[in-house]
Amino acid sequence: MNRVLITMVLIALLAFVATTTRPEESPAKEYKGLAADLALLQGSWELIHGKDGKGTPSTRSVKTIEGNKETLRRYNLQTGQLRVEHTSEFTLTKSGSIRVFTFYKVGDTTKNGLSYVYCVDKENFYDIPGLLHGDEYQNYQTQPGFWHWQRLPDNDFNGAASKARENELTAQKAWKKIASWRIPMPKVKVLNGNELMIDDVRCRLFGVKLLPDATRAARAKQFLEHYVKDYGEYYSIYNDDRPVSASDGVPLIWLKGSGDGGWAQETLVQAGLVGIDYAGFESYHFKTPGKDEDKDVNWKDCLEQAELTFRSGGKPNVNFVWPEK
Question: Whole-structure pTM over 0.90, yes or no?
Answer without folding.
Answer: no
